[in-house]
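Input (structure):
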């Protein structure tokens, strides 16, 4: 059974690039689609190239060989829904995190107000955090010592470079003096 070939699609001949249609669907140029979605042109172009947003690729009308992307309205709607869903999920996560933090804070406040059997748990948590802060302080001190050692090595390296530059300058002076003296010996005197 031979595969059916589709006839080439005809252009609708409209000059207004925002009102072009494709299979009955309105197409938007890249800049307008990006504005509607709320993204930069470059971000939308990258999504089109990756294939996460479908678009129609059409040659530019100026005959330059370049092309333009036209984004169907359904893709714009789908991307806006995806972004809205992502934003809603982020808000839910922040709400849950805020609730958990509030519950934790109120529980800790209650435990501090009424010492009980949970006091040992609180003591263990405090000990853990105390050790953690000590470790952080030790790491900070170590980092400071390493930075100081690095700076000292850098200063030593710069001092060595300066000393080498001075020795090179001295050698240039000596070589120049020797060459001048040699050229004077090689010249016959006018006496």
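Output (sequence):
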């Amino acid at each position: 059974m031979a595969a059916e070939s589709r006839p080439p699609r005809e252009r609708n001949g409209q000059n207004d690039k925002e009102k072009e249609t494709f299979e009955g669907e309105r197409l938007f140029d890249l800049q307008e689609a990006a504005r509607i979605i709320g993204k930069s042109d470059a971000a939308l172009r990258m999504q089109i190239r990756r294939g996460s947003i479908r678009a129609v690729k059409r040659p530019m009308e100026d005959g330059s060989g370049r092309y333009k992307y036209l984004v169907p309205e359904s893709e714009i709607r789908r991307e806006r829904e995806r972004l809205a869903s992502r934003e809603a999920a982020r808000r839910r996560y922040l709400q849950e995190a805020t609730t958990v933090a509030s519950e934790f804070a109120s529980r800790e406040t209650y435990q501090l107000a009424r010492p009980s059997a949970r006091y040992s748990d609180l003591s263990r948590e405090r000990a853990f955090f105390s050790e953690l802060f000590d470790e952080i302080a030790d790491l900070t001190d170590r980092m400071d010592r390493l930075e100081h050692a690095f700076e000292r090595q850098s200063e030593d390296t710069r001092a060595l470079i300066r000393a080498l530059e001075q020795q090179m300058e001295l050698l240039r002076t000596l070589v120049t003096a020797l060459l001048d003296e040699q050229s004077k010996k090689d010249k016959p005197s006018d006496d």
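Notes: Residues 17-74 form one domain. The first strand starts at residue 21 and ends at 22.
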